[in-house]
Amino acid sequence: MRWYPPQWRERYGDEMAALLxxxxxxxxxxxxxxxxxxxxxxxxxxARSAGLVGWSAxxxxxxxxxxxxxxxxxxxxxxxxxxxGKLTDRWSAESSHGSHWVATGSFSAVAVAGVVGCLIVLLAxxxxxxxxxxxxxxxxxxxxxxxxxxxxxxxxxxLGLFGFLVARAHGMSAHDRHGYSALYSALFMLxxxxxxxxxxxxxxxxVAVARRLDLSRPLVLTLGVMAVxxxxxMALAWISLVIWxxxxxxxxxxxxxxxxxxxxxxxxxxxxxxxxxxxxxxTIGLGLGLFGLVRIVGSLGDGxxxxx
Length: 308
Known about the structure:
By secondary structure, the protein is mainly alpha-helical. The chain folds into 2 domains: 1-37, no CATH class; 78-299. 81% of the residues lie in helices and 0% in strands. The chain is built from 12 helices and no strands. It has helices at residues 6-23, 32-49, 59-87, 91-94, 100-127, 129-137, 141-170, 174-180, 182-210, 217-251, 253-259, 273-307.
């Protein structure tokens, strides 16, 4: 029954329990097939109540759900962008060809999209601070305490490991830092995974808090419009990464096959695994963003009619 949202359980839980008892009175427990069916139905009901699917929910709830989907997509995109920046930190010095200006423009577009997107997210966070303060003063801290504390703890751990990595790198040669030291490569992967986890925990905490905030309709609509802009930046970053990759694969195969991906020993083609992982993460993020965009755009008109 916990697969279903609390409000559903309050309304239909007793009836569902009675139905299950009557249906399986001779069985020791509910059969696994029925358990899976109930879990799928419960998750679907949670998605509908959150405004993620269907159009029966309040337009404001759908805009909020779409905006949170965009935020989750942005988390994937910002991790992918950071990976891309790290993997290509020696690109400009080691890659030179006739179409270098195309790659340079694309590389810069990824960076600009990342910076502007982070500013939008920070602005959105600042706009909901008063609502968060009202939540705390209403004595509802216990509702969000766990995800917020986990997010803070994971951020502290990630920052500590990142500082250790930087200190370690200062005492190493460029040769060892770019894949020829197995210990440093393992530490780099650990730090990357920890930072990814910290961003995920922070995003989860933001979603948990945002779902409980009491926001006015104009503010919800404003945040929805900002989320639409964020999706545009995600699309710009994705397109720019593809253009940069295609340009380098065409005119600078040596850089992709030998210099990128944390070390020449680990790459042998124009599709380095680490760069491919960054591209896949950015694609997942853009997919979530586009799904959220559909929810927002399809609900803004309803919200406007409701206001009128």
